[in-house]
Amino acid sequence: MSCNDTHKTRFVLEEKDMPTAWYNVQADMPEMPPYLDGAGEPARPEQLAAIFPPALIEQEMTKERYIDIPGAVLDILRTFRPSPLTRARMFEQALGLPDNVKIYYKYEGINASGSHKANSAIPQAYYNKQAGITKLTTETGAGQWGSALSMAGSQLGMDIEVFMVGVSYDQKPYRRIFMENYGAKVHRSPTNLTNVGRAVLETDPDTPGTLGLAISEAVEIAATNPDTNYSLGSVLNHVILHQTLIGQEAILQMELAEAEPDIVIGCCGGGSNFSGLAFPYYKRRLDGKSKARLLAAEPKSCPTLTGGEYRYDYGDEAKMTPQMMMYTLGHDFVPPGIHAGGLRYHGDSPLLSALVHSGDIEATAVYQTDCFKYALMFSRAEAMLPAPESSHAIAAAVQEARAAAEEGRDCTILFGLSGHGFFDLAAYDAYNQGKLQDFDFKTGTTR
Amino acid sequence: MSCNDTHKTRFVLEEKDMPTAWYNVQADMPEMPPYLDGAGEPARPEQLAAIFPPALIEQEMTKERYIDIPGAVLDILRTFRPSPLTRARMFEQALGLPDNVKIYYKYEGINASGSHKANSAIPQAYYNKQAGITKLTTETGAGQWGSALSMAGSQLGMDIEVFMVGVSYDQKPYRRIFMENYGAKVHRSPTNLTNVGRAVLETDPDTPGTLGLAISEAVEIAATNPDTNYSLGSVLNHVILHQTLIGQEAILQMELAEAEPDIVIGCCGGGSNFSGLAFPYYKRRLDGKSKARLLAAEPKSCPTLTGGEYRYDYGDEAKMTPQMMMYTLGHDFVPPGIHAGGLRYHGDSPLLSALVHSGDIEATAVYQTDCFKYALMFSRAEAMLPAPESSHAIAAAVQEARAAAEEGRDCTILFGLSGHGFFDLAAYDAYNQGKLQDFDFKTGTTR
Questions:
Q1: A104 touches chain B (CB under 8 A)
Q2: ipTM for the complex?
Q3: Is the pTM of this model over 0.90?
Q4: Does the first or last residue of chain B, that is N or C, have fewer Cβ atoms within 10 Å of its Cβ?
């Protein structure tokens, strides 16, 4: 492999090339079904004001196509953006792909918190601070979102209180310490600090906790303290909005690479990483500049888009949030114990759900052992160790690349590598030792 | 803080701007005292051939000023280089520094292995493969070097066998798994695989191991197997040589920043990170383009340059290596148990030692609790969590910045942030819980 320009592997943008506005997909799709309040009526903005600041409620509802990013937010984002986009030449070789099947990836794990979650944590902390809020509560499962919000809190001078799902708290002490290093207060959820938590502990004192329950606790604290708001790392429209820098940058970088993707792939739990990469390509398709298929990759053990129902459901276990129209496995869904990665939320972004429902966006589900297998192959070729979450995109990319190779099709694949796996080595160890099994939610079978 | 060009924080070089030759400081300093063999005679190149390939022995001895980097090595280095150089604006604010005291840092933790060690691991694996070697042995303590060589082995198709200091093996399972993910074989040292290891285990079966002993085991395996060589992550001239990309890039980036450092600081164990940053500035000083002081920062509990003797000593505990003229605490030195970071090698690079001895380069020693304190302050301001090793440079930079501020001096500081601390969270937890003490080797006092 020589090193002239036609063989470039890394497509670097400068600070000044970072987009200065977020792309709002609501401008380019049909009217969304409204959120519903406890009475089943369309939720009014003021009902959200107990836990969200005005600017984020506005971003949740607006149909403006581009929303300018505040200068102070740009300043912080530019300390780690634009993020790199790389041609995965060594991974292509390891897979034995022909020359006309190419794989590119956009890597979001460069920032100190290690995943794309930082892209929304920083503006959320900023807008809350602007609104006079001094503390944010949130939940975290695998730990990426809690880490990102803790980092944002330390940089913007906000107190952060994280309700960490009990089983993760026990299994991932490094994630807890990492958040504490940024000054965050981390609780093992459920706690005795909330009505919701106390009620659960009373009937089931040894519960390992769930993500839906940790959300309920964080929302309860925010709703009952005037100086405290709640912050969510995925699902909601304003979170998706903040992630659209990923796709906007990717478009510029693929132009530098003189390549146009035939398919854009991202891993998908609540939808923030996938949508952040894919929605700007959805727009590009509307503009007639792209014909890319957009493919969300989710776990077979928690297959919201491919195995859930499209209906109204709550965002949390205790039904404290509004109901949203989305693909859901039910707000009391708990993924099986053998599921090792993240992406375990029961629902999905309403925006993404609507675009999947309309057929504009595709979804696929992959087995976790395939994810770990291709994550390790990727890591040995390209060096970076993917988060188990991100590896769902890799497994789907391999599937697409091999299909194209078999059919003799030209195919340019772009996938999102949403974060690194440095805090997930226990799961890799379990895989290396042959201890991981696969579960298919739709068929109820284990293999 | 606004975002125009005069307020740029990140100084990005493109792939094409990466230097294509290493800088060899031996061209610009007096004749080095020779390595000595077991008989006390100057070691001949062929004596090194049992464990090193010809190209690296040549690099160990040559006085050529610039050594071209092979194209295949450039191709891999360019997947993660040039590394970023950043103005630490938020850290400056957190320290309350005046406008005329500025701090820049060059960050080497972006690559997948997480530290500067990758810069030498890749060429070492390459030259060994070129020489027909199929396996490399090495030792690792804190784990950065073992991780880097494991990554290089996976990318270049070499088997890697790592002797990991027993106590680290027990305390850092994530490091072990991380190396295994790249396909490396990791042993808890001492082992029953070597004469050296068996002898120690016979008299002391519960030994926690030492770095010097792990080196001896790795050297023994390499010396007794023709298809196997040994690879060292610091100290030797060719390792220092490979690290000089750091300083060469930093010079270009500081020019982009329109700033010239008054002082260049790096953490220092065996000397590879510090020398890689500082030696190109030593050259720049000889060329009359810089007046920078060059300052190596080491632990007070293991203060080789500031507390050791400048004399001949062995590189390993079992005296299997040649003797080298260097600052040393004695080849049987073991750092105290309360020392939490890396930088625990008993000796120091002969090249760096000579330049410290001649007064061209300065050294200082810092307490570990100061390192953790300023590492956390840095992390909360700049977001990235430093490795405990790297934090020695931060503590020294703070000292210099505050002295300049107090004296009202203009001062531009450049320090090397050699790697991230994502695998070192147990040490941070110990610090957060007030469990870390300081030890001063020179006075023998604990605080």
A1: no
A2: 0.92
A3: yes
A4: C
